[in-house]
Amino acid sequence: MSTFLGLPGLRRRVPDDGATAASAAEPWGAVPHPDEPLRWGESFPAAAKHTLKNEQLRKNLGHATRTIRGKRAAVVDEVPDWEALRDTGSAVKEQVMAQLPDLLAQLEENVTARGGVVHWARDAAEANRIVTEIAQAKGADEVVKVKSMATQEIGLNEHLADEGIAAIETDLAELIVQLADDMPSHILVPAIHRNRAEIRDIFLARMGDAPPDLSDVPRELAMAARAHLRRKFLSAKVAVSGANFGVADTGTLAVVESEGNGRMCLTLPETLVTVMGIEKLIPTYTDLEVFLQLLPRSSTGERMNPYTSLWTGVTPGDGPQEFHLVLLDNGRTDVLADEVGRSALHCIRCSACLNVCPVYERVGGHAYGSVYPGPIGAILTPQLTAASGGVSGADDVNASLPYASTLCGACYDVCPVKIDIPSILVDLRAREVDADRGKHKVDPWRAAMKAASWVMSDGGRFGLAGRAATLGHGLGGRDGVISKAPPPASAWTRDRDLPAPPDETFRQWMAEHEHGEQDGGER
Amino acid sequence: MSAREDVLNRVRAALGGSGVGTTAAGKIGTTPGVVEVPRAYRAAGEHEPGSPEVLTQLVDRLEDYQAHVQVVSEDELPDAVAEVLGGAGSVVVPSGLEEAWLAPLPGDVVVHRDTHAGPDSPLGATDLDAIGAVLTAARVACSETGTIVLDGGPDQGRRAISLVPDVHLCVVRADQVVETIPEAVRILAAHPERPQTWISGPSATSDIELDRVEGVHGPRTLHVLLVT
Amino acid sequence: MRIALAATCIADTLFPGAPRATVRLLERLGHDVVFPRGQACCGQMHVNTGYLDEAVPVIRNHVETFAPAADGEWDAVVVPSGSCTGSIRHQQAMVCRRAGLDDLASTAEAVSAKTYELSELLVDVLGLRDVGAWFPHRVTYHPTCHSLRMLRVGDKPLQLLRAVTDIDLVELPEAESCCGFGGTFALKNADTSAAMLADKTANVRSTEAQVVTAGDYSCLMHIGGGLSRQRAGVGTMHLAEILASTREEPTPLPRTRTPEVAR
């Protein structure tokens, strides 16, 4: 993988604080910055092949995901009505999707009534333009940002940089990612692939005002970030945030966070711009009583996150006196149009599915080639990019994402809104296969599956095939295993032996058994 | 067509609407059925608001977040305030805070009473950054999660004052403490338009190796005086 | 009871020991075991790889073969596999409906209602814990993902194993983590699969068990393939093979590759 040097990615850097050219040459940019935040890099198997070689990454991820899994399990176990909350959360989100046009109109009306300005964006370019124009109208050459997946998804920082506006990420992990000129690898903890020593090195080289004797103790690193950002918070004129929830019946928006950087951004600047996906709605204010229980326990594994901010339009004398809400489509309506896949829009971005996913734990977030990694990314990314390919068959790298799972089901078990990710993965695989059907090219998988279907749909044919396979019994040699097989089984035998077929199939044995012959013999 | 019309039409098409075109990918979806929302979760806890069980749980949970908690009587409150803020140097308080709470404060602690915005509001963000502590009341607290909610009432003030100073001393009355989140939300629902800050311990981060570090951008120290 | 056996395609052709042991066990417990010869496969491989059209004839064959269970001719269908049972229960009808075959879907549902994974049949239907087995070896148990999360068999297999005489049952660290098989995942994402397998085999080896057992031969083929390549000297056995083992007719330990026999 190339470094960021010379790539457009450099534009993402915060252009001040004395980062030198020499320090910029340090190899932290694991990922060159993509033009498409939802489609970068290679297909999943190829990207995973690279990331799996990174021993440090696997160690960091193994440690971090094990820690958070334990925390989540402990705080979920102490809630007696957890399953009832999940049932409600799931149904409320389903209801939101069913009533989306009315709820969006209601939200708009309520935000407007309280002095906010509502904008609509069909796609990333339109949303970026709206935010840029607001910042320009305020004369700002710098905006402070609360961590937000929606703005990651539209590549807002890069767009603002092109327009000469520096977007400063204020969440600690986002700051680490931004300083390293890296890409996030986790929805909640974007720098989960970094350990403390790497973070110290990044701060020393890139922060500009980091204490020279900075250690790698997390507390010291956090204090360095506090000092670095303090001045930005106190002077910022414009802040940009996402939203965890938008309440239709009151026009209230919610941001759930830990560090207080969110409160700083949502409170101190004169102007606040919030970019929210249209699916983030909940119908009523009291529905918060469900989601504010589900989200923190599922995401950070805390009974409650340190800070949650709720605001409704503009409050005279308190907080930003100008508030803009940008409602973003950017492919969401394509997801909504899919009867099976639409429940991917129920996601509240807790990232519990990433933390329990055995695939994510090994390969890390970058292998998914999207700002949405992990199991939810594997169903969301292809659908969000449907208009430009997405699930349209083997030609699109995103079409490899639904196969990035063993269907082990751990994601479904922890999802606070009960998104049946394994079933959606299977459905998307079927769509990809169907999209490829019309194409006149040789596909060994399709040929094999067709042949297998013919054999496996008849007991007689299957019995004959099994009997034929027993002819291979001798292939196993003394140990009874095959250690080197031709493709495609060679992918298997690279790391695993394959058992040689037995000298007798089960049905052969059973025929003898049914005729009263003696049971027994070797395995 | 405006972006608004376009997006709403796409949503309608995705939900099977006819005569509104298609989504960006050219799709028209199926119409979802009617959704029944089950509400089998607990609407309230086992214990009454302000009951000893609930207060004990609140203290336990707040301490788990590394907040400093003291249970005091109404009479003891002013002295307890003075004890916590004695070395703060300066303190900002919201305009509606009870004067009596500040009475025993040592003379060398400068008190800024924050009037609401307007020409007399003297304190900008940089000013607040130079102040040692903030003292507020609260709207409601939830014991199960160790959460205190401020909703901008006169004794809680605008959001900036409880954010920028490094020490937050928050006074919670026993009768404000409920056990569960649904109970808290239903109290707050009386004024959903008020800006709210839900606080569960001092600011914290787990961004480095999922190790929790208390105290980042928000107040690094949270003191709670629970008045019984 | 009259119990029809769905042997599963993989066990029929590659691991006949598991269905053989299922027959021995159930006959020892006094039941009639029927093997409908029309059976081949439940269709899971096709479904999970996205070939739903190609899955339809496979599913049709399964459903029609086992339809007598829905009509009461057999009391139950037993499957020595969690994932095949899961596919029968959660996928077959969905695939039929998607293909517009509502009648077939209804029959599939009726058959699946009478279909049980082996530990479900033994514990839930037959009410057993102790099946009279004897197996004097050190064993660790891997709960396969689909038995755990699609079927929710919970600790039923462990209840059965704990009741085996003279068994030395040791806990597998990080037992509930997937072994990385995932059907065609092991081929399509071979590198990731191998990384998951490496962790699973390391955990198995840390138990110093002689045998790792599970309710699915597909996962065991994967774990066993890794252990064999490492010449770890740890064998794989299906739960049925351990439960079928008695003093009179013990199931022999499987052959394993060990460093000592390295060629």
Automatic annotation (TrEMBL), chain A:
Q: Where is this region: Disordered?
A: 1-35, 479-523
Supply the Gene3D superfamilies for this chain: Alpha-helical ferredoxin, NagB/RpiA/CoA transferase-like
LUD domain span: 105-327
Per UniProt, residues of the 4Fe-4S ferredoxin-type domain are 344-419
Q: Which UniProt keywords apply?
A: 4Fe-4S, Electron transport, Iron, Iron-sulfur, Metal-binding, Repeat, Transport
Query: Where do Basic and acidic residues bias regions lie?
Result: 493-523
Lactate utilization protein B C-terminal domain boundaries: 446-514
One Pfam family this chain carries? Fer4_8
InterPro entries given for it?
A: 4Fe4S_Fe-S-bd (IPR017896), FTHF_cligase-like_sf (IPR024185), Helical_ferredxn (IPR009051), LUD_dom (IPR003741), LutB/LldF (IPR004452), LutB_C (IPR024569), NagB/RpiA_transferase-like (IPR037171)
Would you tell me the protein name for this molecule? L-lactate dehydrogenase complex protein LldF
Q: Which source organism?
A: Isoptericola halotolerans
TrEMBL record, chain B:
**Which stretches are transmembrane?**
none
Which Gene3D superfamilies does the protein's record reference?
Answer: NagB/RpiA/CoA transferase-like
Database matches in InterPro entries: FTHF_cligase-like_sf, LUD_dom, NagB/RpiA_transferase-like
User: Which residues belong to any copy of the LUD domain?
Assistant: 56-227
Query: Which Pfam families does the entry link to?
Result: LUD_dom (PF02589)
| PANTHER family attached to this UniProt entry | LACTATE UTILIZATION PROTEIN C
Name of the protein described by the UniProt record: L-lactate dehydrogenase complex protein LldG
TrEMBL record, chain C:
Q: To which species is this protein native?
A: Isoptericola halotolerans
Q: What is this protein called?
A: L-lactate dehydrogenase complex protein LldE
Q: Which domain of life is it from?
A: Bacteria
Stretches assigned to the Cysteine-rich domain: 6-88, 139-223
